[in-house]
Amino acid sequence: MMFTQAVKELVMTAQAPFESCHASSLAILPDGDMLTAWFAGSKEGAGDSAIWYSRRHKGTWTFPIQLAAADGIPHWNPVFFWKDHGELMLFYKVGQLLKEWSTQVIVSKDNGYTWSLPVELVKGDRGGRGPVRNKPIVLSDGTWLAPASTEDGIWKAFVDISADQGAAWIRSGDIWIQELDYSSIEAVTGSDIPVSEQSFFGRGVIQPTLWESQPGKVHMLLRSSEGYMYRSDSSDSGHIWSKAYPTPLPNNNSGIDLVRMDNGVLILAFNPVGVNWGPRTPLVLRASYDNGHTWDDEFVLEDQEGEYSYPAIIADGKRIFITYTWKRENIAFWQITL
Questions:
Q1: What one-character DSSP code corresponds to residue 77?
Q2: CA distance 263 to 228
Q3: CB half-sphere exposure, 291, CA atoms < 13 A
C-alpha cells in the first residue's frame, strides 16, 4: 500500500496559552471539519492541566479553546467517540494519581460547538474505566469496546464493554504479562513488598489499541515496559482474552494506535524504539495485510531529535488522519491518502 498526498500541519500557529501539551485525540465531522483535543498546562500532572481543543475549518485550525478544567486537579487523555444519532462523546480522566483516576464524559449534539456538563462514566469508580487513551471501536454486532488499563502495581489492560450505547459498562478480566504476575502483591503496597517483587511495579502492559478482524474476533496491541509491543486476542467479542504475548514490534513504553481500513489493512502509528523509556523518535506508520502478524511499508512521520509521541489515528475511506504530541509544544496533524 502506498502512502500518497501527505499533508502535515501544526495545530497551533500562534503562542499557546499553556506551556506543555500532550495526548491528543481526533474526530472527523460530517461537514469535513476536524476536531482535535489534548491535555495541557504547566506540565503533565500539574493541577492546571486541562482539556483543550481546536477545530480545523477549511484547512485552518482555530486558536485553542479550554473545554474541561477543575482548579488544582489534573486532567488527562481526552478520547473522542461518535455515538449514534450524531452525538460526539469526549471521555477524559481526572485525578492527581493515576490509580485514583475517574473517567468523565461530555457530549456534543452540534458537532463540537457546545458540550454537556461532565458526568462520571461509571459512578464511584477509581482507577479509570472506559477508554484510557485510544478510541473505542464498534463491533459488527453493535457492541462498544473501550480499550482500558490500570497503573497500580503491575500494569494491566482490560476492555470495557457496552451493549446499550454507553449507558452501562461491563469490565473484562485483566490482561497482563504472565511472567510478571506475583499474585501475592495484589493486596499489598508500599515498603512491605519484598525487594524481589518491587521490580515488577511499573511494568506490564497498558493503553491498548483494538480492532475486529471477523465477527466476534477482536485483537489488541499493547504498549509495554518490555521493549516490544504485546498482543492479546479474544474470540467472544472481548469478554475473555488470551494472556499478553510479545510481538516483534519494538516499543519504547510509549503510546501506540492503529486503525483498520475498510479492506482489512491495519495502519499502525508508533515509535519503533525497543528500549524501555527510550527516545520518542522516530515516529512512523506501518501497514499489515495479514491481521497484524507482519508489518511493512513504513512511512516516516518524524525522525528528528525531540519527542514525537502518543499518536492517534482514524480513517475515512482511503484517507487517514493522525495527530500526535510534537515536542510537548504543539500538536501535529497529518492527512494522508492511501
A1: E
A2: 27
A3: 8
Q: Which three cell numbers stand for residue 315?
A: 480513517
163 falls in which pLDDT band (50, 70, 90)?
very high
Q: SS3 of 192, please?
A: helix
Residue in 238, 246, 239 with CA at minimum distance from that of residue 219: 238
What does the longest C-alpha to C-alpha distance in the chain come to? 58
- Cα 224 to Cα 186, 305, 306, 333, distances in angstroms: 19, 23, 21, 25
Dump pLDDT digits (tens) for 197-210. 455 668 999 999 99
Q: What is the mean pLDDT of residues 1-14?
A: 88
Write the pLDDT tens digit of every residue in 231-242. Answer: 999 999 999 999
Neighbour tally for 71: CB within 10 Å: 7
Quick one: pLDDT band at residue 185, thresholds 50, 70, 90? very low
Contact by Cβ (8 Å): 224, 200 = no
- Cα–Cα distance for residue pair 103/184, rounded to 1 Å: 28
Which cell numbers in the block locate residue 202? Answer: 511499573
